[in-house]
Amino acid sequence: MSTPSTASRIQREPELLGQTVVVIGASAGIGLETARRARAEGAKLILTGRNPEPLQRAASELDALSTAAFDAMDPNSLERFFCDLTPTIDHVMVTAGQPHYGRLFEMALAQARAGFDAHLMLALRVARNAAHKVRPGGTLLFMGGTGGRCIGIGLGIASTVTAALPALTASLALELAPVRVNLIAAGFVDTPLLASLLGDELENRRNQLRATLPIWRVVGPDDVAALAVHIMTNTALTGATYDIDGGQQFLAGC
Question: Is the Cα torsion angle 90, 96, 99, 104 positive or negative in sign?
Answer without folding.
Answer: negative
